[in-house]
Write a structure and sequence with these properties.
The chain has 148 residues and is an alpha/beta fold. The protein has a single domain, classed as Rossmann fold (3-Layer(aba) Sandwich), CATH 3.40.50. It contains five helices and six strands. The chain has a six-stranded mixed β-sheet, with helices on both faces. β5 and β6 form a beta hairpin.
């Protein structure tokens, strides 16, 4: 098993590495050339800045039983199709049971935004210690399940 992180603007890399170290699991962080990521633990792969380049590289590298950390529903869908586990930085697990509904909601939200003629939407709320705790607990459970 290996852990792959869609690391562009990912706020949970330190938590992923901490848990991976505890279980002696290798981690690969993927980012594009617009980000400067270094790690003393993980392998870092820098991919060209093309649209979805990081996503496709990550999916090409992951295999059944690996764990993927991404906030991108499309990446999660492809990871699940390969038999990998996938988790959002919020700690929510992507599963085959809910991914179609998540993709539909994302599509409907984009359509609503397009028809509202708004130029800008509010970004996500500021990340809290509680968000980190929630992710850590959920990620640890996923790792333990994947190791079985």
């Amino acid at each position: 098993m290996q852990i792959f992180v869609d690391a562009d603007a990912c706020p949970v890399v330190d938590i992923v590495e901490k848990i991976a170290k505890q279980h002696n699991i290798s981690v690969t962080l993927l980012c594009d050339t617009n980000h400067d990521i270094t790690s003393d633990y993980s392998e870092v792969i820098v991919v060209g800045a093309g649209a979805d380049a990081v996503d496709f590289k990550l999916i090409n590298l992951c295999h059944r039983g690996d764990v993927v950390v991404s906030q991108d529903y499309g990446v999660a869908t492809m990871a699940l199709a390969k038999g990998a586990y996938a988790i959002h930085q919020s700690g929510k697990w992507y599963t085959n049971d809910i991914i179609d509904q998540m993709l539909l909601e994302r599509h409907l939200n984009k359509e609503a935004l397009r028809f509202s003629h708004k130029k800008h939407i509010k970004g996500p709320k500021k990340r809290t210690n509680e968000d980190d705790r929630r992710f850590e607990e959920s990620f640890e459970k996923m790792i333990l399940m994947a190791l079985k």
